[in-house]
Design goal:
This protein is 83% helix and 0% strand. Helix 4 runs antiparallel to helix 5. The longest helix has 30 residues. The protein is elongated.
Length: 108
């Protein structure tokens, strides 16, 4: 399997796991603190998506720097790859959030 596809799949599942794991642990924290766990899980899943995206691609500054330097230099291939990594991580985070909504019965 190519390194590009491997990294894209890894970014997807890292972002997916961060959202799912954060929501589940947040739900446990809600039970311990006597708050409604489903609403807490839904809130955490929505709020953590951007952080899951940033964590999956290895930080927020480096991917943007790669895109900028390669795009301005006329080398489109690395910039396009980096954008596709961001899209893959976003899809993972979004699917994790949607799964939490589905499990919790959220209608948002």
């Amino acid at each position: 399997m190519s390194t590009f596809l491997s990294k894209a799949i890894l970014d997807f599942f890292i972002a997916f796991g961060i959202v799912i794991g954060g929501a589940m642990v947040g739900g446990i924290g809600a039970v311990v603190s006597l708050q409604p766990p489903t609403q807490t899980m839904l809130d955490v899943a929505d709020r953590i998506k951007i952080w899951a995206l940033a964590a999956a691609v290895g930080g927020t500054i480096d991917p943007m720097r790669v895109i900028e330097s390669n795009f301005l230099g006329g080398n489109m291939s690395p910039a396009i790859k980096q954008i596709l990594f961001l899209v893959s991580a976003f899809l993972g985070a979004h699917m994790g959030s949607e799964l939490v909504k589905w499990v919790c019965g959220g209608k948002e």
